[in-house]
């Protein structure tokens, strides 16, 4: 039974308990809540690791059902002036809530994507935070701290959200897989987790897309196709051919693969580079190959032609091995 919601929303953690990974952070926050002493919070870290989800779970835990009345969500990257924000915060902070929210008196103000606020706005915020601290707690969410004003950071307790660990990710995804009756091979699931690098949003989006398209069980190749990333098996073939075949075999193999699978040379290069680092090879030759590949990557990114750079890549490996 599907109610049409994207899985990232359908499976947004409802409680702190169900947030995957970052156990240390969750435990600390649980202690704060237990003692009724929530400080201003700063959550930062890569996308899809549960920052927004965690703050919503906190609000639910503290305020129960009426949590929506107790939390003001401001998306800092909306193009609003700081005056509007100040006005909204002022109105929100000055209306007292008489029901819900058990013994806790404060309300929660969430500033999402705060790293895209202008410096002027961030400066204004420092004052606002101090002014309304008695009845409100601020929670600042960001991807990068280096774009945040140090004075702002120092007013908050900081938590860095790490990419979600593989084991925790798997456990979470397995629940979704069971609930949605997804047919996926063990190998494909492991590849998906590896590709998503701890980003749960990405995991769920790719899984849902593959599930929607799949006729049979989802295989590793479906995952790679869906994210538009080369299948490592194909790249191994390319590397083998680069190192062993004639030019007349190698070039068509690569060109055909690029065309059939819709791959860009830049994506292939990244993976070829990874393999070349580990392949058994004389150190001098390895150094030559890697330097050559990095030159090609540079030329590609500055507008070099795919065709010529593809031949160039073969040339790099050939001349290094001679
Ligand atoms: N730790 C997690 N446990 C379970 N699900 C998660 C977790 N992190 C992210 N998700 C899933 O990914 C979706 C997006 O997560 P969320 O909005 O919390 O990410 P975020 O860290 O705020 O990312 P961004 O930096 O892009 O705002 C959630 O709806 C949920 O489905
Ligand atoms: Mg977020």
UniProtKB/TrEMBL annotation:
Domain of life: Eukaryota
InterPro entries, per the entry: AAA+_ATPase, ATPase_AAA_core, DNA_pol3_clamp-load_cplx_C, DNA_Rep/Repair_Clamp_Loader, P-loop_NTPase, Rep_factorC_C, RFC_lid
Example of a GO biological process term: DNA strand elongation involved in DNA replication
One Pfam family hit: RCF1-5-like_lid
Family annotation (CDD domains): AAA, HLD_clamp_RFC
Gene3D superfamilies: 1.10.8.60, 1.20.272.10, P-loop containing nucleotide triphosphate hydrolases (3.40.50.300)
GO molecular function, one term: ATP hydrolysis activity
GO-annotated cellular components: Ctf18 RFC-like complex; DNA replication factor C complex; Elg1 RFC-like complex; Rad17 RFC-like complex
Main location: nucleus
SMART domains linked to this entry: AAA
Keywords, in A-Z order: ATP-binding, DNA replication, Nucleotide-binding, Nucleus
Residue span(s) of domain AAA+ ATPase: 37-166
Localisation: Nucleus
Record SUPFAM superfamilies: P-loop containing nucleoside triphosphate hydrolases, post-AAA+ oligomerization domain-like
Annotated family: Belongs to the activator 1 small subunits family.
Name the UniProt record assigns to this protein: Replication factor C subunit 3
Organism in which the protein naturally occurs: Starmerella bacillaris
Lineage: Eukaryota, Fungi, Dikarya, Ascomycota, Saccharomycotina
